[in-house]
Each structure stands twice: as structure tokens, then as C-alpha cells.
């Protein structure tokens, strides 16, 4: 077994975080962010239709760029996903990027799939990286036109048997339902493209459903928390005071009920109340409401 294959097998046995750390040590970090921050912000505001990229690329060295946060987000470099899910720019800063050759890239995605039970990592694995490896090293179709592809092909080169051996090892990282039980063979590009489109649509649909479920769960949690809040403070409901009401709103109510004679305006009260935590403000406000209620009753 050659040294390169040994390195890949060692990487397979690490956790995702450990693998990222090892690759950062091996290849070094990025000298630039993935996108230009101002351009990214303008894109999120829909002022422009594309995002200016940073000078991060190292394909001249045969290395791919991988977003470290791909274990928590899908399609981080996809403009449609960025605009739809409002991905923050902080996911694209240079300290959130790691470089890897083609097989290392596949291993990172396999480790993500393993640790997230297939929720993340698989789209890139199944629709982009794995097919490229099969074409280049099993099908032995060396890229001819694009220089960056030639560089990446050369950097990660393994012969067909070594490639199959490594792919079988990596495949075992995947959740059982995604493991390849068939013989590893080269499939023509036309068929690959068809599968890529089908897989992409399927994964995007699953992701949208997951995001919608997450949204509904958050709504449910908010409703439950609101019920608990009004159970403890029933008189807050008619004043539209909720558990997440702003300090400014709470202090404004306090001013109207309890402090209008002590402070000239609400801003002065806000300044005086700066050291007071929000829970204490809520208790003070509720006491003031009950006091006024008893006096009027």
C-alpha cells in the first residue's frame, strides 16, 4: 500500500473535526475569504445578482476548497440557498475554509454524513465528488481541457484498483441506507448527469422539508413558552408583553405605570435601568400592574 493510500486511510479513522484540523495542518489555511463581504451583503439585500469571490482558490496546487460548516448547512456556495436561507457571511470567512485533494474532499463529506446520519454531506458526495473520482480514476478518463481539473487529477491520482479499495473503505462511513452494495464501475457522463439532477432535486426537497419542520417546531416551542409565560404573568397578555418583549418596551410600560413622576422621560429611565436584568424588570412591571389593578378595584 502506497503512502498516499495510507494517509487517506488514516483520515477515514478520524472524526470530522479531527480531519479538518489535520488537513489545515497539512495544506495550510486560506489567505482570503470565500466571498467579498460587501458584495455578499449586497447580494443578500438583492441589490446585485451575483457575489464577488475572494482570491482563495488553490486549484493550481490541485486542491479543492471546502466549507467547514458543511456539517450544518447545505449548498453553502449555492446562490439560491444563500438568498433563501440567509446564510451569514461568517460561514465564508477564511478561517471557515479548509483545503483538500479530491479523495480528502470525499472523506470529509463521508465523515459529515456519518456524524449527521446522512442529513448533511451527501449532496456533494453523491452528485459531485464521487462521480468525478469514478470518471477520473476508475474510468481512467483524464480531464483534457480545464487546467484546474488536470491539476486536481494529478494531485490525488490513484490507479483503478487503489481507487476501488479506498472507495469501499470510505463507503463504510456512510449510513447503511446510503452505502453502495453494487460493484464499483464507471458510468458514462450522460447517466451521471441524470442521476446528479435527480439526487440534487431529492436532497433539496428533503432539506426544504427539514427547514420547514424546524420552523414549525420553533413556532410550537414559542407557543408553549408563551403559554407558560402568561400562566405566570396572566395580566401581561392584555398589554401585549411577551417573554421576548424588548427591554425598551418593558421600561416604557414601567415608566407609564410607576416612574413618570421620578424621571423626566423614558430615556432617562432606560439609562437608570441599565444594570437591571430583564427578568427583574418584568417582575417590577407585573408588580406595578397588580398594584394599579388593586387600587382601581
Topology:
Elements (H helix, E strand, L loop, with lengths): L2 H10 L3 H12 L9 H8 L19 E4 L11 H7 L11 E4 L1 H14 L6 H17 L8 H9 L4 H12 L17 H44 L14 H13 L6 H7 L5 H19 L1
Structural class: mainly alpha
Largest sheet: 2 strands, antiparallel
Number of helices: 12
Strand elements, count: 2
**How far apart are the termini?**
88 Å
Q: Regarding quaternary structure, how should these chains be classified? A: single chain
Strand content: under 5%
Envelope shape? elongated
What radius of gyration results from the CA coordinates? Answer: 27 Å
Mean pLDDT: 92
SSE order, one letter for each helix or strand: HHHEHEHHHHHHHH
Integer tally of domains: 2
How do the strands line up in the largest sheet?
1-2
The share of residues in helices is: 55-70%
Model regions low in confidence, pLDDT < 50 over at least 5 residues: none
Coiled coil: 193-220
Keywords: Coiled coil
Amino acid at each position: 500500500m502506497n503512502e498516499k493510500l495510507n494517509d487517506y486511510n488514516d483520515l477515514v479513522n478520524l472524526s470530522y473535526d479531527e480531519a479538518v484540523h489535520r488537513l489545515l495542518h497539512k495544506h495550510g489555511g486560506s489567505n482570503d475569504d470565500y466571498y467579498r463581504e460587501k458584495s455578499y451583503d449586497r447580494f443578500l439585500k438583492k441589490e446585485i445578482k451575483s457575489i464577488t469571490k475572494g482570491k482563495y482558490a488553490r486549484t493550481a496546487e490541485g486542491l479543492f476548497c471546502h466549507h467547514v460548516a458543511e456539517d450544518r448547512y447545505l449548498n453553502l456556495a449555492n446562490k439560491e440557498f444563500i438568498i433563501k436561507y440567509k446564510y451569514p457571511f461568517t460561514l465564508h470567512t477564511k478561517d471557515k475554509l479548509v483545503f483538500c485533494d479530491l479523495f480528502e474532499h470525499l472523506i470529509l463529506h463521508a465523515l459529515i454524513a456519518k456524524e449527521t446520519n446522512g442529513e448533511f454531506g451527501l449532496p456533494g458526495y453523491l452528485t459531485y465528488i464521487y462521480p468525478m473520482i469514478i470518471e477520473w480514476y476508475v474510468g481512467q478518463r483524464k480531464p483534457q481541457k480545464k487546467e484546474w481539473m488536470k491539476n486536481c487529477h494529478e494531485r490525488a491520482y490513484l490507479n483503478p484498483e487503489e481507487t476501488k479499495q479506498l472507495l469501499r473503505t470510505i463507503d463504510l462511513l456512510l449510513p447503511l441506507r446510503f452505502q453502495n452494495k453494487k460493484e464499483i464501475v464507471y458510468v458514462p457522463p450522460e447517466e451521471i448527469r441524470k442521476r446528479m439532477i435527480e439526487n440534487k432535486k431529492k436532497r433539496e426537497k428533503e432539506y426544504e422539508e427539514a427547514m420547514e419542520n424546524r420552523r414549525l417546531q420553533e413556532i410550537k416551542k414559542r407557543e408553549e413558552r408563551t403559554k407558560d409565560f402568561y400562566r405566570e404573568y396572566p395580566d401581561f397578555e392584555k398589554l401585549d408583553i411577551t417573554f421576548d418583549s424588548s427591554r425598551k418596551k418593558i421600561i416604557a410600560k414601567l415608566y407609564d405605570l410607576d416612574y413618570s413622576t421620578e424621571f423626566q422621560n423614558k430615556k432617562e429611565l432606560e439609562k437608570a435601568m441599565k444594570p437591571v436584568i430583564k427578568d427583574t424588570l418584568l417582575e417590577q412591571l407585573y408588580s406595578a400592574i397588580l398594584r394599579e389593578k388593586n387600587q382601581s378595584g
